Amino acid sequence: MCVAVPMKVVEISEYRCVAEIGGVRKEASLMMLDGVEVGDYVMIHAGFAIEKVDPEAAEETIRLMRDILDTENPDG
Length: 76
Hints:
The chain is of the alpha+beta class. Helices cover 24% and strands 42% of the residues. It contains one helix and five strands. It has one helix spanning 55-72; strands spanning 5-13, 16-21, 24-29, 41-45, 48-53. Strands 3-2-1-4-5 form a five-stranded antiparallel sheet, with helices on one face.
């Protein structure tokens, strides 16, 4: 199953960005979006930023994903 993940943009270079979640950084293409700036949250899927996301919604989604992972793996 493929899942898009909300990540915060920390660097931008032409049509690529570096986005971060929980200290993990990934490079992604920005070719599908316009107007992305450092500090924005974007949904990353298969190496592409596919949608800008409201920061509050992104943080809530990240929190819920962490809760699910903690439930699935209670020992860490």
